[in-house]
Amino acid sequence: MFEHLGSLPPDPILGLLASYRADENPCKIDLGVGVYKDEAGHTAVLQAVKEAETRLLQSEETKAYIGPAGTPGFNSTMQELVLGAGHPALEDGRVRSAQTPGGCGALRILAELINRAKAGTTVWVSDPTWANHVPLLGNAGLKIKSYPYYDRASNRLLFDQMVEVLKAVDEGEVVLLHACCHNPCGADLSREQWKVLAEMASKQGFTPFVDIAYQGFGDSLEDDAYGLRLMAESVPEMLVAASCSKNFGLYRERVGLAMVIYINGGSADRGHSQMLSAIRGNYSMPPSHGAAIVESILTDAGLKANWEAELTEMRARINSLRAGLVEGLTAADAGGDFNFICQQKGMFSFLGISPEQVQQLQKDFSIYMVDSSRISIAGLSSRNMEYFCKAVASVL
Ligand code: LMR
Fold first, then answer.
1. Which CATH class is domain 65-299?
2. pLDDT tens digits for 89-103?
3. Superfamily (CATH H level) for 12-44+308-395
4. Residue nearest to atom 1 of ligand 1 (CA)
5. Exposed site from 18, 75, 94, 246, fewest CB < 10 Å?
6. Is residue 317 within 8 Å of 38, Cβ to Cβ?
């Protein structure tokens, strides 16, 4: 049965991990997968998570099934984190959500829901977008098209070109947007640009699908959700995939939320029954542990304050690394203007070097990054910054 199957190359992002781990160079640097690291290069469990987990272990009384939608408490607290308490869509009773295995689970289930509403619907994704968006949405049956978003030569957002292409998007089609900390380029839409897109969505009747995987990593929990919340006030229907991997550091626990804003309560109930059936026919129900941690943090004022402080610290460290990187590249005479790195947000930026130069960095210096030259900034530190900047200067 399987003999005729050919082998595929490793995943462009996850595949780097194996090569990095096998590398014995003590100077090796991992800038591949988007995982936060502290100054010592360690991805520690957040203190707020540890505390919530300790409490949970003491209070948990059963391991019985939680059902396809997950825990109602997690879903409602996450809805408020993303939309803001008292958002009109929540007040109107038009929002339904399900706890999912990570942001990936949310993206996939929402894609299946769209496909149930209209098979083969076109979803427009940014060029570039996160590599896994395409299989997650495409394998559910959606047709993928792309709109211009970022110019690698000038390192800037292509907003006018984006708008020009999106003007042709029809009613009933879907446009995927990154709420903040664009993955892979780090270039985010301004408030003014979100307003333009919200007006277009409302006028043209396309459905926004917002991926919010880095809330709190850009400017703040509130600012990072500005565009998403505005969009949710402007359109009758919208999809949101949220992830708790980065902002709660719960990567391997797989915690996410698939949220849909419907036109009215009746449509919400019908749509939600479809979503639950899609979940049941896929992974049946989500894992419980990580979501229980998030719920416990978000519903306890003390734990929430501690978590927000830790999130602020992660964000500040990434921002100071961005500044240090620009300084370091200038000091190493790398040539060119790298100031764009300081203006970008979140875990990633493109360094702007060729795939050949990326390979050379790996071969000669044991520095690992995705071929597109996307770097996960948190993999840098004061210990390896000079080594990294000199290596980049040498391949340029
Ligand atoms: C990334 O882009 O590196 C992260 O979102 C992790 C992943 O699953 O690709």
1. alpha beta
2. 999 999 999 999 999
3. Aspartate Aminotransferase, domain 1 (3.90.1150.10)
4. 34
5. 18
6. yes
